[in-house]
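Progress note, project year one: complex with 6-phosphogluconic acid.
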Amino acid sequence: MKSEPDERHIIVTPTERLALEAAERIAEAVDETLQHKQIFRMVLAGGNTPKKLYQCLAEDPFRSVIPWRRIHFFWGDERCVPPDHPESNYRMVREALLDRLPVPDANIHRMKGEDADPPQAARSYEAELRRHFGQEAGQGPPKFDLILLGLGTDGHTASLFPDTPALQERRRWVVANPVAKLKAQRLTLSLAVLNRAARVFFLVSGADKATILSQILERSPEGLRLPAALIRPADGPPLWLVDDDAASRLRPSQTGERL
Ligand code: 6PG
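Model obtained:
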């Protein structure tokens, strides 16, 4: 029996509006959170899809209305490369967003992909999270105000790839995940942290994601086993922000709000 996802959490937009829609939702989340908290802690996604969103956030109106000095930036995952490497998620975010905004360096919490010992880099990032969250985290995983995620054509998200050890991690907050198909390790937040988030926004664009997105949102038996399907935050289902191309294989009943 495939249970229908709550369609309120799937927003379909034309490709050219996806970044703006996501930026508006992020601005709303920031505004809502900063009514009762001093800072907003946001985990950024890597890859190509979010670039346009980051560029949109760095332009007016968002550049002017979002109180950037009260936002702390973290990464959901990072490639094991130096921060100036073309494949670095940090470099992509710096160029698309951070270099264009008045964000204090102290608010930028980079995963050190350049570390020759990826497990040590993961432990160091976890230590930084523990320092930053302090007692607030207590013993449990830290609670980010917003986690942005992308979706790979194989159903991975962050660097939680199918059939990789990180999917079994129950204790650590950050791990070095060996990804055989990439012949590389990746640094990634664990499911425990991702599912602790106050909000999770998936940003999905492109016809190449249509099949995998449909499998996940249909909650078919194989879809339910995919890493992105394991993102079920206790505070409420993820918000799926998808463009028309990525939504092209969803049943009409699944495409909630079409903008
Ligand atoms: C990364 C991302 C990864 C990404 C997906 C989708 O480091 O690559 O964290 O999870 O979100 O692979 O990537 P695209 O947006 O490039 O399709």
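The beta strands are 10-13, 40-44, 71-75, 77-79, 146-149, 174-179, 184-189, 200-204, 239-243, 257-258.
Residues 1-5 have pLDDT under 50 and may be disordered.
No further modelling is planned for this target in the current period.
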